[in-house]
Design a protein that fits this description.
- The structure holds three protein chains of three kinds.
- Chain A contains eleven helices and 14 strands.
- The mean pLDDT of chain A is about 95.
- By secondary structure, chain A is α+β, with helices and mostly antiparallel strands.
- In chain A, the strands form four sheets. Chain A has a five-stranded antiparallel beta sheet. In chain A, strands 11-12-13-14 form a four-stranded antiparallel beta sheet.
- In chain A, helix 10 packs across helix 11.
- In chain B, helix 10 packs parallel to helix 17, helix 13 packs parallel to helix 14 and helix 16 crosses helix 17.
- Chain B contains 18 helices and 32 strands.
- The N and C termini of chain B lie far apart (about 60 Å).
- The longest helix of chain B is centred in the C-terminal third of the chain and has 28 residues.
- By secondary structure, chain C is of the alpha+beta class.
- Chain C contains five helices and five strands; from the N terminus they run E-E-H-E-E-E-H-H-H-H.
- In chain C, strands 2-1-5-3-4 form a five-stranded mixed beta sheet, with helices on both faces.
- The termini of chain C are far apart.
- The chains are: A alpha+beta, B alpha+beta, C alpha+beta.
- Chains in contact: A-B, A-C, B-C.
- At the B-C interface, helix 1 and helix 16 of B face helix 2, helix 3, helix 4 and helix 5 of C.
């Protein structure tokens, strides 16, 4: 049974911020919070359930500004959203591989981000699409690049009174494609032992834009900026896949744990980067994604 | 004889209840006035308990009882009484019960358990077989202080809780006569059964009479009844076990687990029932597990592949207490050399205690582990000699009239057919050992076979009661846990008596009135229960013939019972069909028609010599089977995908063919988990992955495996309709076949399970 | 707040109950309504035994508060058979041999119901994907896949 707590269900954003500032634990889908509470690892005095805040549920697309995803949007909504499949395929791949249907039905993209887990499936794809976070606190709101959102394992830049309100994802270039490869021991219901996200925009064979992000390759989700910079503007035919893999893996800093060793993760990362790159390339050239 | 009900695929009799959610499992029992139990568990894997302070817990409103090890210091155990109900002097594994709470609601009980303060003095932790073998730290300082009610052989001043030996021929001579001697080691990880239903018990105690009643999803009520009676110091008849439906057994519900805890609390609640349900975390940390195993093999073989000698040493890490380790050790010891003709064979098995959860009964009782080892060894030999793995096996397998390593002349043995059929099922003969697929994957094939005995001697009784309308109630204590026993037993009764299957019902199992059955393990229920039911059916027939003879005014010898018709020989008008028995009136005001059947294997059994294990008949039923696997490995990522399993199992005679297939398909996927995914990871006695994300049982997505299964029917002379058991065989060769196929695919010698991508990738760099 | 009065419809029947906010939907169904068909397997959203439909969508009832179901329509295994007739999924599970110990079955049926509502003629691949959150330890899953396809062919769904 869940230990006792006081439950608040504000419908107003600022009220939620105030409760959070007072120490209430924020709960959205509950797929992480209630697991931790069942296991006795989390024993909050108070919970603030933010699902009553209507505009945090909204998710829209505009061809100029791209996606505006309310933090309460569920993984299932993203998974079933045809537009996401058309324009943000890696995000579809990420969200559709979170937990199970039951978990995706409840779990939210905001929760996935705010947990600050290095393995978060939605974060890598959002990073490569250049997502920004709209953060709201008692004193107002601010816009933060998602890449700057994480400060350590399970740690984010959110102040005590702040909530992640919306996620803004710019529209992808017309000649672009993306891919997310999730590596797990088991083929479902598993956490990413590693994840590689790639966004690739081409001008014929020239790499106009390339963004690479990793899950579980460092204490936080991360971008491989140096590799991106080195390859930007290059003709992809002039680069060896193996080099891309090596270069990108060199930027990672995975740890050894009982789940897997650092050397295994690094070795695997080289391969997964190649696979993700090839997949994105095929999709870009195919022109369909 | 033309069989009408057996041999046909029939829908399970328990299915409607199950698909409508009506089946009552352990946690579905709620009794009036019931309290809820919670367990305060050790956070240390090995420590002396200095002090237990329950003051705070007792103050919490709603708490009705808090008890500690000091309140109950009796030890229990089926084979050796080494385990306290609640730890009192020291704790020997993380999660061991240190105090128990009963309260008005579950949350209060859990909160109170948290408030119990325990002062520990940590002791050095024994985390592995190797550490246990040094005997530097002894978990049980003095084995001789324990009562040993079962077959258990601990070694004083060591961590060895049981030993097993098998001796045939002269092993050194055998190696001398060999052209090639191959030595290898194989290890298997610790596994958790991961039944979806966790351990649960609800108990109450009559404070005046001392009678104890417990509701539990127990697999073997008659095995745990004497254990509980001794643990709680009451005569046997004062323990009543009311069995609930079992939400997955696989051996995990063979030991007592939640029962003694619920009972211990109920002793202190003034007659109020106490319900105790393990959380998933408790299930992983402190219920039961499959013991990790290390198996060393040394095999001597002639150039042509003829096996000459095999020496096997098996080390089981049975965790903090011995529990059923000795039986695993025994069963696996008999199977450790595989179903092969080997003139010189030695086996030594050791159960070692460590500061981990309890390694005990798990589907197959040690045979899947030793099958991994001996089948890995066979492939290594085949490779050394340049022989086809299947050919090497066929050359050496036991056949009719051959002598086993335990000195038995083998009969009704179909392992050769199983190997051939399993091979055919994956197209073995058309494929090389390994190849590269079009998309660059490394593919390989592997095959494995095994032998497994059923526990002997044992006894099963049944009572068949004919109701007034010709329907039949069967009292039989073999427990339904998904394997289908409550379908095959009625099928056999239906066949024997000509009663339609839907008029036959299984009574619930309750030690207060159900007849004795030793245990629902060892794949024994179809064989033993079936024989007992057929014997009971004969009594029903006799009684009906007598009644009908009286009615027709003829002598009973003129009567016969054919296909459910009770008739007078040669007089077609003098006949009553069992369906019309009520209308016939022959049962009216007559004694009840009740048949008893008891099947015991005591008279068939020759007790094996305690050192050599030689015996004319150590078991009433050997089970055999083989499986072949095709696996693909991604050389870039190390990912392993099981593509196909071809299986062939000798079921003797398939009473319910669909049930037999279910008992092979399920284990194939379970075995896939064992081979590639599952392991309990301990670091210094602390379980790292005690949840269902980190302990990875196969999901739908992992299980897309092509399965081709052949039921081989070599009828067993003593089996009911020739049937044998199939509850465990399905699991025995799966992991072994997968390991061999992976090793073939990547030309490796990976010798531990689970095989992880990591192992595959880094082997490449060797 | 620590307790709350909620109104829910379960299998078509309306209930109004005051519950603690810390009560999960699973506990509400099993302990308050005595609908014990829905099972507790892990309390961590990893086994799917507690799956029920909330407004038609499958959720793990162990990871949802009862108060979150206020105003919702809940559907559990007890609601599948109607007027003494089994639902096609139930029939198909029996016919295909998709039931063994039966503990995962109620949750499995609920996920299967949601799947068929979404994909009336599902492929084996869709079934494996949509049911990935339901663990079965007995069957090896194959017969469950076949049962769902069989139910979809019975064409009586809904």
């Amino acid at each position: 049974m869940l230990p006792q707590f006081e439950l608040y269900r504000p419908t107003n954003l600022l009220e939620a911020c105030r409760l959070k500032a007072q120490g209430a634990v924020v709960v959205a889908g509950g797929t992480d919070v209630y697991v931790a509470m069942h296991g006795g690892k989390l024993r909050p005095q108070a919970l603030v359930d933010i699902k009553g805040i209507a505009d945090m549920q909204e998710a829209t697309y505009d061809q100029n500004s791209g996606l505006t995803i309310g933090a309460l949007t569920t993984h299932r909504t993203i998974e079933e959203w045809e537009l996401v499949k058309q324009k943000y395929y890696a995000l579809f791949e990420g969200c559709s591989q979170v937990g199970s249907v039951q978990i995706r039905q409840r779990g939210t993209i905001g929760g996935n981000i705010c947990n600050g887990a290095p393995s978060a499936d939605s974060v890598g794809p959002l990073l490569v699409f250049g997502a920004e976070c709209l953060v709201v606190g008692e004193k107002g709101q601010r816009k933060v690049p998602l890449a700057g959102f994480f400060t350590g394992p399970k740690k984010t830049i959110l102040a005590d009174d702040e909530l992640l309100y919306k996620i803004l994802v710019p529209p992808p270039a017309p000649n672009s494609a993306s891919a997310y490869i999730k590596y797990t021991r088991r083929r479902a219901m598993d956490l990413a032992l590693l994840g590689v996200s790639i966004y690739l925009a081409l001008d014929k064979s020239r790499i106009e834009e390339l963004r690479i992000a990793f899950a579980t390759a460092a204490p936080t989700p991360m971008r491989a900026y140096q590799t991106e910079a080195k390859l930007r503007g290059k003709d992809y035919r002039s680069i060896s896949l193996a080099d891309i893999g090596k270069m990108a893996a060199a930027e990672a800093n995975p740890r050894s744990s009982w789940r897997a060793s650092r050397e295994f993760r690094l070795r695997l990362l080289e391969q997964l980067v190649q696979q993700a790159f090839t997949t994105a390339l095929q999709r870009a050239e195919g022109g369909d994604l | 004889m033309d069989l009408k009900v057996v041999g046909k695929p029939v829908a399970r009799k328990d299915a409607i209840e199950k698909v409508t959610g009506q089946t009552k499992f352990g946690a579905d029992i709620d009794l009036p006035g019931q309290l809820y139990g919670a367990v305060c568990r050790s956070t240390y894997p090995h420590a002396t308990i200095k002090n237990v302070n329950t003051e705070m817990a007792l103050k919490l409103p709603g708490v009705r009882a808090v008890i500690t090890g000091k309140d109950y210091t009796k030890l229990y155990g089926q084979f050796i009484e080494d385990q306290p109900v609640i730890a009192f002097d020291k704790v020997r594994y993380q999660g061991e019960p240190v105090a128990l709470v009963a309260a008005e609601d579950l949350l209060t009980a859990q909160e109170a358990a948290r408030l119990i303060e325990i002062e520990y003095e940590p002791l050095p932790v024994v985390n592995s077989i190797d550490e246990a073998l040094t005997n530097e730290t002894l978990l049980h300082e003095d084995w001789s202080k324990y009562n040993i009610p079962g077959a258990c052989h601990p070694v004083q001043n060591t961590n060895i809780g049981d030993t097993f030996t098998l001796r045939k021929g002269d092993i050194e001579q055998g190696f001398k006569e060999s052209d090639l001697v191959v030595e290898n080691k194989f290890s298997c990880s610790m596994l958790q059964h991961t039944t979806i239903e966790t351990h649960t018990a609800t108990a109450y105690v009559n404070q005046i009479t001392g009678e104890i009643t417990v509701y539990t999803p127990a697999q073997s009520p008659f095995t745990i009844r004497p254990v509980l009676a001794k643990a709680f110091n009451v005569p046997l008849e004062k323990i009543r076990i009311i069995c609930t439906a079992i939400g997955g057994g696989f051996g995990s519900k063979y030991e007592v687990r939640a029962e003694p805890l619920a009972i211990a609390l109920a002793l202190f609640t003034n007659g109020r029932p106490v319900k105790l349900q393990f959380s998933r975390e408790e299930e992983f940390m402190a219920s039961v597990a499959r013991a990790p195993a290390q198996i060393h093999l040394k095999t001597g073989v002639k150039k042509d592949g003829t096996l000459v000698a095999q020496q096997v040493k098996i080390y089981w890490d049975t965790g903090a207490y011995v529990t059923t380790g000795p039986r695993v050790n025994y069963n696996a010891g008999f199977a450790a050399c595989g179903p092969y003709k080997i003139p010189h064979a030695w086996v030594d098995g050791y159960c070692l205690v460590t500061n981990k959860s309890l390694g005990t009964a798990y589907r197959g009782f040690g045979v899947p582990e030793v099958a991994c080892a001996h089948e890995f060894q066979m492939d290594c030999i085949a490779k050394e000699l340049g022989l086809d793995p299947l050919e090497l096996r066929l050359k050496n397998v036991l056949e009719e009239g051959d002598i086993s390593v335990t000195g038995e002349v083998m009969q009704s043995i179909a392992v050769k057919e199983c190997l051939e059929e399993a091979a055919k099922n994956i197209g073995w003969y058309d494929k090389p050992l390994n190849w590269t697929t079009q998309d660059g994957k490394l593919a390989g094939k592997g095959i494995a076979c095994f032998c497994k005995l059923t526990g002997t001697p044992s006894t099963t009784s049944t009572v068949l009661k004919l109701n007034e309308n010709g329907s039949l109630t069967i009292q039989y204590s073999g427990r339904e846990m998904g394997q289908g026993v409550t379908t095959v037993i009625p099928q056999m009764a239906a066949e024997a008596l000509g009663i339609s299957l839907d008029k036959i019902h299984m009574a619930p199992v309750d030690t207060a009135y159900s007849p004795y059955d030793k245990t629902t393990t060892s794949s024994r229920s179809t064989f033993h229960g079936g024989n007992a039911v057929l014997m009971a059916a004969e009594q029903i027939k006799e009684q009906l013939l007598d009644l009908a003879a009286k009615y027709f005014q003829v002598s009973p010898s003129q009567m016969e019972y054919v296909d459910g018709v009770i008739r007078c020989k040669g007089e077609p008008t003098k006949a009553i069909h069992i369906e019309d028995i009520e209308a016939s009136g022959i049962l009216k005001e007559q004694p009840p028609v009740i048949g008893n059947g008891t099947y015991s294997t005591l008279n068939l059994y020759y007790k094996p010599d305690p050192l050599t294990r030689q015996s004319k008949r150590p078991t009433v039923m050997w089970m055999f089977g083989a499986q072949a696997a095709i696996t693909e490995v991604d050389p870039a990522t190390g990912c392993i995908k099981l593509k196909t399993i071809g299986a062939a199992h000798d079921v003797g005679y398939a009473i319910n063919p669909v049930g037999c297939l279910q008992q092979i398909e399920g284990p194939i996927i379970m075995g896939l988990g064992h081979a590639l995914l599952e392991e309990m990871i301990y670091e210094n006695g602390i379980l790292r992955n005690g949840n269902m994300v980190d302990y990875k049982v196969p999901t739908f997505q992992d299980s897309d495996v092509e399965m081709k299964i052949t039921l081989v029917e070599k009828q067993h002379p003593e089996g009911p309709f020739g049937a044998k058991g199939i509850g465990e065989p399905g699991i025995c060769p799966v992991a072994a076949a997968i390991v061999n196929s992976v090793n073939a695919a990547c030309e490796a010698n990976l010798n531990s399970i689970p095989i992880k991508p990591e192992h595959v990738l880094f082997r490449k760099e060797d | 707040m620590k307790t709350l009065t909620i109104q829910v419809t379960v299998n078509g029947e309306a209930f109004c109950k005051t519950v603690g906010v810390n009560m999960t939907l699973l506990e509400f169904l099993r302990e308050e309504l005595h609908l014990t068909g829905t099972k507790l397997g892990c309390n961590e959203g990893e086994c799917g035994a507690c799956t029920v439909l909330v407004d038609g969508k499958p959720v793990n009832s162990c990871l949802m508060l009862a108060v979150e179901a206020d105003g919702a329509e809940i559907f559990t295994v007890e609601g599948l058979a109607k007027d003494g007739t089994l639902h096609p999924l139930q029939e198909a599970f029996i016919e295909a041999g998709a039931v063994q110990c039966g503990f995962c079955t109620p949750g499995m049926l609920m996920s299967a119901k949601a799947l068929l509502d979404k994909y009336p003629k599902p492929t084996a691949q869709q079934i494996r994907k949509e049911l990935e959150g339901n663990i079965c330890r007995c069957t090896g899953y194959d017969r469950i896949v076949k049962a769902i396809i069989l139910a979809s062919e019975m064409n009586k769904e809904g």
